[in-house]
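User: My advisor asked me to double-check a structure prediction for VWFD domain-containing protein before group meeting. I don't want to rely on an old file, so could you generate it fresh from this sequence?
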Amino acid sequence: MKQALLLFVWCFVVAIKGDNCNGNHLTLPDIDRRASNYAVRVSEPWIRDYLLPSGWYDVGRRNMPTDPNSLGHYQESCGTGAPIWMNGTIPRTSEGKVNRTVCIKLDNGQNPYDPCYWNPFGIEVINCGTHMLYKLAPAYFSDVAYCFDPSDLSTYSVKVQPWLFFADNIGINGQIFKKPKLFFRCQLTGNMTDDLYYTVSWYVNDKFLLSRGPVIFNELNDTNLHETDLIESDYKLDINIKCVMNTSTNSENAHANSSTSLQFWLGIRVLNPAVNMIQGSSANIQLQPTFPFGCSSKVDDLNPQAECSLSVHMFDPDDSNDCKSSSISVKESQRCSVQIPGFYHHQWQPGVPYDNVTQMTITTRDPNDYNQGKNKFVLKLLTGGTGLNDIVQGNYINNIIVTTSFETSWQAKTCYAYVDPHMSSFDGRTYENQHEGIFVMYRHNSSKQEVQMKTKRCNSVAFCACAVAVRAGGDIFLLDLCRSPGLIKHVSCKENILDVRQVNAYLYKIYMPLGTMVSVAINNWSGYESTLNLNIYPSVKDVHETRGLCGVLNNNQGDDFKTPSGLKVYDNNEFSLSWRLDQRDSFFDPMNHNPDLWDENSQYCVCPAALNTATIPSTSSGNKLDPLCSASLSLSCSTNINIQGTQYRTCNIRTKRSKHSMSKEIERILRKEVVDNDIKTQQNLQKRSVIAISLEEALEECKRFFTSNCTTARFEDTLPNSNHNSMNSSMTNCALDYTYTGNMSLASLHCETYRSEVAEEIGRNSTFREANPEVVESFRTMACINNCNNNGDCVNGSCICRDSYIEEDCSVSLSNYPAVEDTYSGGLCQKDEDDCCGDVPIYGSRFVKGITKQRLEIFNIYLNGTIVFQEPNIQVIPILNPFEAQINVPCHRSQRSADPDNSTIPFILGTRVSLSNDGRNYGPAKSYYILDSKCQGILNDTNGYTFYLQDGTCFISGTCYSAKEEDALDKCNRCQPTVNRFYWTYECTRNNDPLLAKDQTPIIISVCIATLVIVLVIVITSIVKCCLKKEQRIAGNIEINVTIPTTRAGKFDKTLLFCSQQNLRNIGTEGKENSDDPNNAAKITRPGNPGSMSFQKIFLDMELHEN
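Assistant: Sure, here is a fresh prediction for VWFD domain-containing protein from the sequence you gave:
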């Protein structure tokens, strides 16, 4: 019974199947175009099934796609606009007729949770084994159609695959180069067969470009798309490429099936095209190529010198580099471009990654002005390079939008050290630093910027700031008044990234690369002339980055007292001492004048700074894309109104003297024994005076003083709000000093600190300047430096001095002569090792530019003891700073002389200089001597200098020679010190002199006669010497003891002595008046004045031989 029932069911199913699978059925039109990977071609009609007749359709071995994700976007699948897919599985033959739901795939309005949400409807399906039957009805909309994939392509897919190869290219000299070529494959994956024909159509930006085929499977490379195809059609980068592959069983492409790739974007992808950053910070722009590229190289060159790379240049077409607004800068190591690595022919192989991400670091370059202006930037990218694929060069990449948010916590801030010293951090935490030593005042965490301060005792219990060292990378600038004379110099100049400006004789501003500015004011008040007021004004790049006595710039006073280890302390003494340095760790030690260079990754380039109104820059050498690079993010703007003063001697130690000479001179100055420059103070100035006064009383007194004597205080109600804090701080410091000293002697000094802070604030605040032009003009007109020291009147911002006072602040009396305290090389210059003539520096104090005059006297000292002075030269001299000037020393040239006793040849050359401001009152003179260490030696003792002719040398016709050294004009002449130290010794023989090869009889007779004459001379000389009865005989030596008078004031310079190394005698005494003793007779002659002056004894005993 059971078997009969099963037989009945089987017969029923077969009957039903047979009835439907074997009948006549409808043919679905455009069946070959209904594949899910078939995209509508240009000018090709869409398939529209809204008029499709209802009925059963035989579709062969095709099936409807069941996954909407396998379908492309609009117009990319099934030859229509929106394809219809089946929401269900393909039935098995045993299932017979089944019901299924079909859906329309839409790009817009699709429900992500139910892809069949939009207008589903039903169909019927039968799997007949050899073919499929679908009962279809008309579609609801006009731009939709049913999709059917052939069974032989149902597992196929295609994609665009970029590929690189290198073709042989013959160069000019017949050399073979490997030149890169880029092409694209329509790569087929899945169950591929070799019995089909393939045709590939290529589309660029959805526009048909070309078609290649049909070809058999092994000839698929013939269907590739080449970069030349794109270039010929004016395509480069930033394009979409797709391919459509048609397959058929015959070369006529009949009954073709097709597969369409997804879009392939050819270009350099910007992974973060929108960048948001805080002003002063950095951000990375990420670039990724979507294709491989290569570089040309010789076929046998497997180790090219340069890396193969594609340059991507960044530039801002709206940046005019007018320094009035922020701009974008790029790290100098990238120089406004990033290098994306490519391949040489020996490096490329399939599978090597070519889409690695490359980064370009950008930051803001900001003027030191509170009104930053621009905060949105549109950056452009342009590709370039040489020897690369043709298609990659000269392409513009997607723009980058950079938006910055302004940082204001650095504005209206200053860190200072005033006088003894009153200290304040950037965030306004005030304290006292009563300790002697060298301190780190400011240090930048991530860049090589640092400021060191030196303090010394300035009265019985107080210490004052007297020196500062500013370092940026390989540059160091010193202003040191802790020594006498003072020193203002660049002591290291490796990079020229410190911009030092001399605002006036006593105010210097040092601009650091990140925009930080150090203001150094030399106090010019009686009793405090050698002290400093230091201000450090931060930039936006100092926020959260500062350490040292200035604390952390972050608007939080609570964390300002941090030690170098980061420990937070509360006691100002513990905090101050933690930042004190050993001498060997300071920039005041010459051993530390070789600092590390500024890291190139901390240097930035403007990209480009000026485009000359062009919007498309060139890529050739010397073009508009060339970046302006510097470690300085703020100083490349020559028009920046905030950079004040004239440049103080560009950071270049060489100037007119050799680098070696000046470096040695700086080291000499710093290493010489420092004369304690005890800072002058009034005798009654002592901390904690016995005069009792409360801080409140002192503050009231200072307020009255500021109101009546400080011009700046008159503008208090109209100045920027930030300056109210500055005035309160200055008055508080004034009151503290009043309680310490018991008098108001320092009040004017604090008034000047207030004026300088206001001036700097106005300079940085363009918003205030533009809104209050009258206030700004009144301030600049009425507020003069140091209130003209009460020795002049402030007129239009300048001091008009009275009562014979000079200098910009009327601080110097015209009758006071400048002091000369030191000369170049310590007054002793060895011409064989140094630059001894030309512009020679002298050191002292109170040098006034355009006023100070020299009285320069050139003198020569001869072997016979005669000293000859030239007429004095009186003229205004160049002033470098109040402590350094220049005199011009003529270059002396030695000449050959026929003088038998060398008496007309100078042994020592010298210069004597004294200075005056009024041309009448000259200060004590300093002498400057030029000698040749090759033969001239010197000793220095308490009585003065001793010069001598060194053993083993000769001094002939004003020139030094070593033993056995030949005469350049006659090789028979040699220096033989054991024979004669002042004349050539003739040493030619018959073997080496052609003259001696002749008959020498006349010469021999002459020699004999000459010998007899010499013997007679010696005998006579001996008799004369015995008659003279000298106190002492010095054989073979020359000793001269001379005291040179200095000025009409009756003071004398150091004693000069000349003697041999075997027997040094010093019988002169420094500072003695001229002697009337006739035994001390030595002649001194001046041009036009044949008179004589008396000197110390002169001992001369010249013999031809030494035994």
